[in-house]
């Protein structure tokens, strides 16, 4: 799909250490990478600089939610990549099957629509969204009134290790 559309850009929500971000940026695409865990963002930033990809990657240090607030980041004791937003997270803790423990600290949340107010969004008129935020996807899109317009979003990709969320009029990669 990316080869078929030279104007296609990527929004990577839950970027982690940047597997998708770095791959797409290396292919010459603009990438908006949103990551809640500061240590992951540090690693991603170093990789962007080392790879000379700073003209293609925009990094955001926030979690995505349905409101602007301060949240805890829960810890998956078996998987650092399984960090999750710990708000009313009993459903996430159930998904984690007892692996949730401790916290990585706090982070501010933004909404999907808040992303549209960023100046870099001028480069993101035709996008694929990759969203892997450990069971919080439903809450992230709950109040996205402007950000998920079907004419801009070509594909939406969810994580593989938890149930897909519902997204009308969108194909999953």
What does this structure look like?
With 173 residues, the chain is an alpha/beta fold. It has a domain at 2-69 and 108-158: Rossmann fold, CATH 3.40.50.150. The chain is built from 5 helices and 9 strands. It has helices at residues 19-26, 38-50, 90-95, 112-115, 137-141; strands at residues 9-13, 31-34, 57-60, 63-64, 70-76, 84-86, 100-110, 127-131, 153-158. The strands form 2 sheets. Strands 3-2-1-8-9 form a 5-stranded parallel β-sheet, covered by helices on one side. A 4-stranded mixed β-sheet has the order 4-7-5-6. α2 links the parallel β2 and β3 (57-60). The longest helix is centred in the N-terminal third of the chain and has 13 residues, at 38-50. The relative contact order is 0.19. The model is unreliable at 161-173 (pLDDT under 50).
**SSE order in H/E notation?**
EHEHEEEEHEHEHE
Look up the CATH topology of one domain: Rossmann fold
Strand order of the largest sheet: 3-2-1-8-9
Based on CA atoms alone, the radius of gyration comes out at 15 Å
Organism: Magallana gigas
Pfam families: Methyltransf_21
Protein name: Methyltransferase FkbM domain-containing protein
């Amino acid at each position: 799909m990316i080869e078929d559309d030279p104007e296609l850009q990527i929004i990577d929500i839950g970027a982690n250490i940047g597997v998708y971000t770095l791959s797409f940026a290396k292919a010459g695409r603009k990438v908006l990478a949103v990551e809640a865990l500061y240590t992951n963002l540090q690693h991603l930033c170093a990789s962007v600089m080392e790879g000379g990809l700073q003209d293609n990657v925009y990094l955001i240090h926030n979690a995505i939610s349905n409101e602007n607030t301060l949240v805890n980041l829960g810890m998956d004791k078996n998987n650092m990549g399984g960090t999750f937003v710990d708000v009313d997270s009993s459903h996430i803790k159930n998904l984690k099957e007892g692996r949730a423990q401790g916290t990585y600290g706090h982070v501010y949340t933004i909404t999907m629509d808040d992303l549209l107010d960023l100046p870099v969004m001028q480069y993101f008129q035709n996008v694929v969204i990759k969203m892997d935020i450990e069971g919080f996807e439903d809450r992230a899109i709950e109040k996205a009134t402007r950000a998920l317009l079907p004419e801009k979003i070509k594909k939406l990709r969810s994580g593989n290790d938890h149930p897909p969320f519902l997204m009308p009029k969108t194909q999953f990669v």
